[in-house]
Amino acid sequence: MLTGHLPIHHMMTGHLPGHFHTSHADRSFTHTSHDDRSFTRTSPYILGYYEESLAVSTDPNHQFELALKLEMFETAYELLTAAALKMVSRGDSKPQPQEGDVEEEATVAPGAAPGSDLQLKYKRLGDLALQKGNISLFEQCAERGDDTNGLLLLYSCTGDAAGLDRLVKLAKSQRRFNVAFLALLLLKRVEECIDLLIECDRIPE
CB–CB of 139/129 below 8 Å? Predict the structure, then answer.
């Protein structure tokens, strides 16, 4: 009766304490039918074997969640970068700046469209990286996810004038004029602050 599901039986017996190995999962997966593979991929996760589950998972969303749980932040960032590049290839990247906007400088990897699932994932990863003191990764995630408020906090706390200058351009391109104004004010570029208020028709301020 179990002949058709022997690979799954082997996978489950491999979960005995001290007996589970990724190579065991790989062998079981290779000999599993197409209908049973989803179970084979998720069974290590169900039983708490997150590293083993990451090794056999083929779902990018599942891989991302596992990488966060394991605090493998670089792996999580690579998954998001791959997803962003895939979106660009499909033509689903964030919209181009409208006429009158300041065009953002080219970056190595594409950013996420506002309000997209990818942008939310960049935010989650960036927040976790910041909690762990990984400032560099937080900055990368904030840039890719257009988290202008996070970048303003980072650059103002670290006194990064070059970062604030980049943020002015990014914030303008996203029409987040409050952030652009604060960045200009921190840079003591008062004339540009006035010009921005005029441009936004907020002269009384």
Answer: no
**What residues contact residue 85 under an 8 Å CB cut-off, 6+ apart?**
109, 110
pLDDT of 129 reads 95
Q: Per-residue pLDDT tens for 118-140?
A: 999 999 999 999 999 999 999 99
- Buried b / exposed e over 127-160, threshold 16 CB at 10 Å, is ebbbeeebeebbbbbbbbbbbbebbbebbeeeeb
* Chain-centre distance for alpha carbon 26: 28
From 49, 13, 7, 52, select the one nearest 31 (Cα to Cα).
Answer: 7
Q: Find tokens 């080219």 and name the residue.
A: 106
Q: Which residues contact 22 (CB under 8 A, 6 or more apart)?
A: 51, 52, 55, 56
